[in-house]
Amino acid sequence: MILQEADNFKELEQEIYKLVCKIVRKKLKETLLLVDEIITIGERGFYTIPFAESL
After folding, report:
1. Alpha carbons 14 and 7: distance in angstroms, whole number
2. Which residues have CB under 8 Å from 48's CB, separation 6+?
3. So which domain of life are we looking at (predicted)?
């Protein structure tokens, strides 16, 4: 019984880890696409990054 619960916990832990990794990868991809879009627009001169002016 204890070994079965340990196996179930290990499987649950692995599934949670996979889910968290999937979410992080998705958010990272979205963020990188947004940054790429901002850089591309900035290169064309249509957009300036507000915080860059203070650097």
Report:
1. 11
2. 42
3. Bacteria
Q: pTM above 0.85?
A: no
Cα–Cα dist 49/52, whole Å: 5
Please check whether residue 42 is in contact with residue 48, taking contact to mean a CB–CB distance below 8 angstroms.
yes
Angle in degrees, CA 39, 55, 28, rounded to 5: 40
Of 47, 30, 29, 51, the residue nearest 38 (C-alpha): 47
47: nearest Cα among 32, 30, 33, 35: 35
Residue 14 C-alpha from the chain's centroid: 19
